[in-house]
Amino acid sequence: MKVRKIPMRSCVVTKEKLPKQELIRVVRTPEGNVIVDITGKANGRGAYLKKDISVIDKAEKTKVLNRFLEIEVNKQIFDELRNLIK
């Protein structure tokens, strides 16, 4: 039986390499909207965050998503991320 490769991604806050299932993807779509990508397959520039409330809080405080996605990320996205984790 063939062993499947587990896709690894880096959290933009902690810089940890983790399996893709342990991270949440936030995407800037080609239209310029910012969305939380639950499927992990949406088109656009993506950034991964660890599924941890403290990481989400730190990302909001340091505005790290603004730098990675090159667009202003509003508070509603961070609220949506916190609700997904709970």
Question: How would you characterize the overall build of this protein?
Answer:
β1 (8-10) and β2 form a beta hairpin. α1 (53-62) runs antiparallel to α3. The termini are far apart. Helices cover 31% and strands 26% of the residues. It has three helices and five strands; from the N terminus they run βββββααα. The chain has one domain (8-85): YlxR-like (Hypothetical Cytosolic Protein, Chain: A, 2-Layer Sandwich), CATH 3.30.1230. The radius of gyration is 13 Å and the shape is globular.
In terms of topology, how is this protein built?
Elements lengths: L7 E3 L6 E3 L3 E6 L5 E4 L7 E6 L2 H10 L1 H6 L5 H11 L1
Antiparallel strand pairs: 1-2, 3-4, 3-5
Kindly report the spatial arrangement of strands forming the biggest sheet: 4-3-5
Mean pLDDT: 95
Share in β-strands: 25-35%
CATH superfamily: YlxR-like
CATH class: Alpha Beta
Query: Looking at CATH, which topology would you report?
Result: Hypothetical Cytosolic Protein, Chain: A
Contiguous helical run count: 3
CATH architecture: 2-Layer Sandwich
